[in-house]
Amino acid sequence: MATRAKAKANGNQGKAAEGQSVSTIRDILFGEQMEDYEGRFTELEKQLVDKFDELKRDLTSHVEQLSDSIRREREGSDDRNPSRARLADLLEGVADQLRSKAG
After folding, report:
1. Which has the closest alpha carbon to 9: 62, 102, 1, 40?
2. Helix/strand/coil (H, E, C) string of 25-91?
3. CA distances (Å), 58 to each of 54, 63, 69, 92, 93, in order?
4. What are the two backbone dihedrals, phi and then psi, of residue 82, each rounded to the nearest 5 degrees?
5. Where are the domains of the chain?
6. pTM as predicted
7. Which of 4, 61, 72, 97 sits between 20 and 30 A of 55, alpha carbons compared?
8. What's the mean pLDDT in 63-69?
9. Element (H, E) at 103
C-alpha cells in the first residue's frame, strides 16, 4: 500500500512538473502576445467603465430634468386651473341664480 501511495505521489509530482514545463514553454512562445492582449483587455475594461459612468451621469441628469419639468408643468397647471372647491362654489352660485330666476 505504501508503494502505491509513493507511486501516486511521484505521478502527481511528475504531472505538476510537466504542467509547469508546458506553462514555461507557453510563456516563451506567446508571452509577448499575451501581455499585449492583457494590456488591450485592460484598456477596453477601462473604456467600458468610463462609458458606463458617463451614461449613468447622463441618465441621472435627464431623469432630474424630466422630474423638474413635470413638477413645473403641474404647478403651472394648478395656477391656470381653479381648484375643484372653487369650481364647486361657482357652480353652486350659478345654480342658486338659476333657481331664483326660475322661482
Report:
1. 1
2. HHHHHHHHHHHHHHHHHHHHHHHHHHHHHHHHHHHHHHHHHHHHHHHHHHHHHHHHCCCHHHHHHHH
3. 6, 9, 16, 51, 52
4. -65, 155
5. 2-102
6. 0.47
7. 72
8. 92
9. none
